[in-house]
Amino acid sequence: MAKELNLNLPSADDLFTTQDERDNAKLEKIMIVPASEVYPYVRQPYQTNRLTSDLVKLMDSIGRHGIESPLIVRPRAEGGYEIISGHRRDYCGQVHNIPDRPIIIRDYTDDQADILVADLNIAREKPLFSELAKSYKLRYDAMKRQGKRTDLTFGQSDQKLPKQNSRQELAVIVGKTEDDVRRILDLNNLIPELLALVDNSVDREKGKLFIAMRPGSELSRLPKEQQQMLFAAIESECCTPSHDQTLRMRDKSKEGELDEDTILSIMQEEKPNQVEQFKLPKEKINRFFAPGTPADKIENDIIKGLELLQRKRERDNAR
């Protein structure tokens, strides 16, 4: 029986290419593809079009120079590529009608992609609490599935951490206390209307109601129906609950005693730092404003109307 001889002959590539060419073939290549072949990450946790100062700078730079830094993508099963890093660059490209995208393709698993997308969001300028909550959950769930710490962290891949649960581990990675990580994860259980009020606490624009992160975490423990009741009370009373009030609502809920009347009673309490306010029932003015009109615009329009009324009275008295 003939034996196969292994002569260790060089391959055709080795015979007809130089070492430099073979080394270059192993390097990542930047490809240019049509913009239509690039898609946002299916579980991306952040807003790409939120007008922050760094987005304004990026928009201006891309408008003048194009997209200079390639997007990091991975292949999609349906065809095309899914963005891992570069969602805002892609958004700016859309605004400026740039027809193609420079990309680098990498084969990330779902868990690796979740962790990288979360980390890139966590590192952004002034992220909203809703974005942090989604990012933390994306990363937390991936870490739990892995059952161990990943090496895709903030430059800590060579460090050994003591045995920790996933939440403790996440706290070390993002540089927060475990309690803060728990509270931010809790925000995922808020109804969208209350979560939007927690987001308002990031910038705290004048005239906008907001709920701080810790009270928001306590409110996340309320059943969704009770959260809806609370939001209705916030709208009617034009105020948000203090931390102490949220704790009492949480306790009343545990005891099965939290209903619309109890929520309204707690919300109508005068807070120590609360100046006396004139309250106008919303149902009396709803017909003058389109649904969803922001509270600060309603207030400004009412003040403008009163100023016009005052000027008319002054003219009438002068006759």
Give an overview in words.
By secondary structure, the protein is of the alpha/beta class. It has 4 domains: 31-107, Conserved hypothetical protein from pyrococcus furiosus pfu- 392566-001, ParB domain (Alpha-Beta Complex), CATH 3.90.1530; 112-153 and 171-187, no CATH class; 191-267, no CATH class; 284-311, no CATH class. It is 50% helix and 7% strand. The chain is built from 14 helices and 5 strands. The chain has helices spanning 12-16, 19-25, 53-65, 87-95, 110-122, 129-146, 166-174, 178-186, 192-203, 213-219, 224-237, 243-254, 260-267, 295-318, and strands at residues 31-34, 38-39, 71-75, 81-85, 100-105. Strands 1-5-3-4-2 form a 5-stranded mixed beta sheet. Strand 3 (71-75) and strand 4 (81-85) form a beta hairpin. Helix 6 crosses helix 8 (178-186) and helix 7 (166-174) packs across helix 8 (178-186). The protein is flat and about 80 Å long. The protein starts with 11 loop residues before the first helix and ends with a helix.
